[in-house]
Amino acid sequence: MTAGPADRDLPVAARAVCAVVLAAGEGTRLRPLTERLPKALCPVGNAPLLDRALDRLAGLGLVGPARVAVNACYLGQQVVDHVGGRGHLSVEPGDPLGTAGGVANLREWIAGRGVLVGNADAYLADPARPPGPDIAALLDGWDGDSVRLLGQPAADPTAPGTFDGHVFTGFSLLPWRLVRELPVEFGDLVRAVWRPAEAAGALTVVPYAGTFLDTGTPADYLAANLHAAGGGNLVDPTATVTGRCRSAVIGAGAVVHGDVERVVVWPGATVGPGERLRDAVRAGTDLTVPGTPPSRRRGNI
User: Fold this and answer.
1) Domain map of the chain by residue range?
2) What whole-number distance in Å separates Cα of residue 150 and Cα of residue 142?
3) CA dist., res. 174 & res. 22, Å (int)
4) Which CATH superfamily is domain 5-213 in?
5) Residue 171: which H helix or E strand, with range?
6) pLDDT tens across 111-170, in order?
7) What's the pTM value of the predicted model, to 2 decimals?
8) Are 197 and 203 in contact (CB under 8 A)?
9) Largest CA distance in the chain
10) How many whole angstroms separate alpha carbon 53 and alpha carbon 25?
11) 3-state DSSP call for residue 203?
12) Sign of the C-alpha dihedral, residues 68, 72, 78, 80?
């Protein structure tokens, strides 16, 4: 593929690569929060997860609808409206196609390029490097033919779901030769691409040095928010706070008159006078989701 004028400002390794952000899933483990918002738009550190993924790609020079695609399905119109003109949109009819089917559905747009695939629900943070450069090793020296995964050492290197003793941390790099063979039907990249590449000796795990959380459960979602807050409070300037806050993330337009600790208050949500919330997520005026595993919950939230 010949590099066009828009490629001149990209790192050499990124010039023949496009990016796909997977944002079509239902986020069933994060319900009932995801009954209101698609998981990709759930805020972490007062920024939608999808924006964090797009910012990371922008840090690699991958921006705009020619370079970045976002797929959508569940509550898809919210994703479409949020992305706007920042990326090419692939809206899947019916049920989500899964990670492999979602990439396959973008085959005509990918058009011969390698694909950097990111999960919108992955929370990554590396204090040593800004978003983009923190995952740049995925592209460095890539041969355009092998499969690469971003990963971190697993607590149990032999556990199911690990790759070369690592857990997947949200981003992978796929060659066109494999993408063009993917069927446009429900399927996942683990079975369709990663495991076959591993068996063929064509898969490399690239270490990620920062913090990773998949935000798939309320506990991990809360942990990602608290990490983003850096151990203190992260309060949007438009929020109204008269209550006591400790290790809390308070969204835009939220109103907090009660006492909150290790809590995420979504944009526009309310914590009333006399309320005491611990280890939880508050959405709206009526939804409180515990953010600790059941075995660790004590007393009332």
Assistant:
1) 5-213, 218-296
2) 13
3) 14
4) Spore Coat Polysaccharide Biosynthesis Protein SpsA; Chain A (3.90.550.10)
5) strand 166-174
6) 999 999 999 999 999 999 999 999 999 999 999 999 999 999 999 988 889 999 999 999
7) 0.91
8) yes
9) 64
10) 15
11) strand
12) positive
